[in-house]
Structures are given as structure tokens and as C-alpha cells.
User: What shape does this take?
Amino acid sequence: MIRIEQIKLKIEQKTDVLYREAARILRIAEWDILFLQIVKRSLDARKKPDLFYSYVIEVTIKQEAEVWKRCAKGRSGRIEAGGHFLSLRQAEEYVFPVFHTGECVERPVIAGMGPAGLFCAYFLAREGYRPILLERGKDVDARQRDVEAFWAGGILNPESNVQFGEGGAGTFSDGKLNTLVKDTHGRNREVLRLFVRFGAPEEILFDNKPHIGTDILRTVVKNMREEIKRLGGEVRFQSQVTEIKVADGGIDGVVINGVQLLETKTLVLAVGHSARNTFSMLYEKGIPMEAKPFAVGFRVEHRQAFIDESMYGNTGRTAGGALPAAAYKVTAKAEDGRGVYSFCMCPGGYVVNASSEQGRLCTNGMSYSGRDGENANSAVIVSVTPADYKEKHPLAGVAFQQKLEERAYLAGAGRVPVQTYGSFRASIKEKTALPPDQGAAFLPAVKGEYVFADITEILPEALNRDIVEGMEQFGRQIKGFDRADTLLLAVESRTSSPLRILRDDTLQSEIRGLFPCGEGAGYAGGITSAAMDGIKVAEAVAARLAD
Assistant: This one.
């Protein structure tokens, strides 16, 4: 097939026009195109308000060799032709390494039903390994009821919340599916293909920044679970691994909920970044781990209309709905050398109370597939390293997070604390105390109860200064980003795992048969990268069981 890059269409044009454009570029008739596939679509807003979609496509055509010879004119590789880049491509398809040759007596156990655990279980089930999948929380429907009851003012369920339950923490998020992980094995494409198979829209296969929203993600998760069961896997909810059994340097079983022993020689540890009591249990068992850098800060809210105009110009979200709610990404460097940046931007979304422990409060961002809320939010966060944790201990980052979350809980008396940026900045930079709602021009979009409160005592003083420095730099990148009525919501503390459970080239801990996997173990940073790591670990498990 022939790949064609940099085909630009006006945002209101239909994708059918791509057939005509491909035929024009290759100088063939449209009916000579046997198959056309969109590989990538990205929005070009460099000359706003004149906006375009830039496409990369692949076409299968009649007499491909002759057409390529005419276009290439003796050149090889990726060539330029009339402002477009052309190249010959082979169809790429992920292939799971074949290790399984007969009935598998030993059933691998997978702890955690986030994307890492789900994708690991799916591939092992598909290949006949009949995995047993354990999840400490509830199924996604029961979990949703618990979460919504909590947001409505009910009591937090420590085992069924935004962090714990089927689908993992990403279930109550924006459902972003882009990743910066380099992929030479086709796992990224395979993850997206499977998302589509289990209920996601086909657009995620080619959108530059694909997302599906929390509503669609829940459907995908349920469909994957049912397919794992159909393929011979077993799923157990409300089944927390409270202890691991070790014999002769290897896994010998797991204890579920403190009472039930499940024998196994293979354990995939795909717990999320908030499984703090599991981390403590593993540390006490002597599982090698280390503290790692992550980032903390606040959720920042603007009106979505302001972000749309900033990104799109006067076009806004017109053109017959062809434009999505606008997103942004901003980065800065504070005087002390720390990075300050936006993270997990949720256009048209909500800030959610993402707490999982009594007396501690943290936030996250969430959007539905339509991204049609009135506000935009993102985390504005500052990098922290083990040097900031004040002690050399693998769990020091966990303790650091907990301290911030306790302060946030106290600041809002159990509700999400909110402060205008103008009030926050006056306190940090000018040492002037202003009411926390000073200059508020709109209300926050929050899932859960909130209250205007002073949040300046939550982060360490140095990080507060970094936040202000970063916001001022962002205001030069997006005019008005640092306006006084911008809202800050505390605290964003669980951007990634604060530790890494060590593994070797076989993806095992020094405790043989133990496979640390996904974001909680420190090997991923989002839904797609966690799913990719789940596939990678499934390959390693299959290789071990074949020995």
C-alpha cells in the first residue's frame, strides 16, 4: 500500500474527499483505489481562525508497482511529491508470540482490573491459559453507584471508589488513549483496535489525540470482562490480595481478603497507583522496590469557551460542530529548576473527588465522550523527586502524598477546597490575604461537594511559588490563562505511582513468578501505556509457562 502524508481538508469537509485527493496526488482515477484507511488525523490551528485537519492515509490501489514507479521517479524511501510525502508500506499486525502448545495446568493469577490487568488477562485467556483475575473493588456498574452516592454527599467506600474497582482509576477520567511510549511491536495499535472491538468509536484509530470518555470506557471494560470469561478466564470481584506466599524464592500462592488461600506459581501484580496497603504488604515481604519521581499540584478550571477562543480564534466551536472542545498543553520551568506543566487536560469536563482513604482528599479530571461541559480543567503540577520526601524509604513518596491529602481534607472539611487564582497568588507572591472566592466569576464543575477555602497551606511553600511562576508563564503562552478568576482545586497528588516495584529483563521480580505490571508498579503512565505493558507482561508470562 502507499502512505500519503499531509493532506489538508477544511474542518467542515467530509472524509469522502480523501478519495479524490489521493487520486489527484497519485494521478489515478478514484475507482482505481481499492481501499483507503485513515492512519492519523490532527487539527492544524496555526493560522487560526482558518483551521484544517491534516490527514495521513494509506491506500491500496490497482497496479501499485507502476503507480509507485511513476511517482518515485527512481527515488527510494519516503519521497516528497507536490507538497505531500509518499512511502510504500506493508500492512502491520500485532502477533502474540506462540508459546502455548497444549492444556495449561497452572492458571496464572492477575491482581487488578485496570487496563494493565485487563489486557494481560485478555491475551492470556485468548491463548488458552485460563487466568484468574482478582479485583479488590466491585464490578463497574456497582462501583459507579458507590461513586455517585459518595459524590452526592454519602460516605466514602474505601474499596469501591474512583481509584478501586473494575476498570481501574482510568474509568473515571477523560479516557485519553494517546501515549508517548515508543512502540516497535504494534502493541499500541492493537490496544486501540481492541478498544474499538469492545465498544469504542473507530475514530480513535486515527485521531491524533484519541479519547473515549468515562461513559464509553465503562462499556469497553464490561465487554472485555465478558470476553475474558467466555475464553475460559475467571473474574472475582471484592477479592483483594492481602498476602503473597513465597517458597524457594518464588511465588507459591496468594491470600485473598485475609482468609482464602489461592495456590499459584505465577502472579501478575497489576494493582493501581493507589494500592497503598498492598505496597506496604509487599515491602514487609521484602519485595524489592524504590521511590520514584512524580508530580503534585492543583486542578485548574477555566471556562471552556475561553479555551476554545484561545485555541481556535473567532471560529470557536462553530462550523456545524466539526470542531471538538479545544484542548491545550502548557509547560514551564521555575527558577528553582523544577518543571511545571499541565497534565490530563479535560475539555468540557469535571473535577472529581477521587479520594480512596478516610480523612484524605485528592482530585482528578473526568470527561464524558461528548466533552460538552461548561468548564475545562487540567492538572497544573510540579515535579517532585525522592529528595523531597525527606527520608530514604521506598514508601516515602506514598507518605508524602498522604500528608498533602490530609491537608486538603482539612482545608475543605471533607469537601473539595477551591480558591481563585487571584486570591492564591496574592497570598503566595504578595503575602496579602484575600477571601478564597475573591473575584470568582463562575462556579467550578465538580463531581462531589466543594467549598471555597484557603489552599495555600497544602503544598510546601516552594511548590506554591513554582505553581505561581508556572501560571505566569502559561499566561504568556495562552493570554488570560493566569487571570484572577481562574479556579484552583486541591489537591492533585496521584499523577503516577510514587514507587517502582523492580523487575528484570524477564519482567519478573527477584521473587520468581511475580510480574510487576502497569502504572501502579511504576511501568506506565496512562490507560494506553498500561494496557501495552499488560500485553508485554502477558507475553513474558506465556514464555515462562512454556519453559
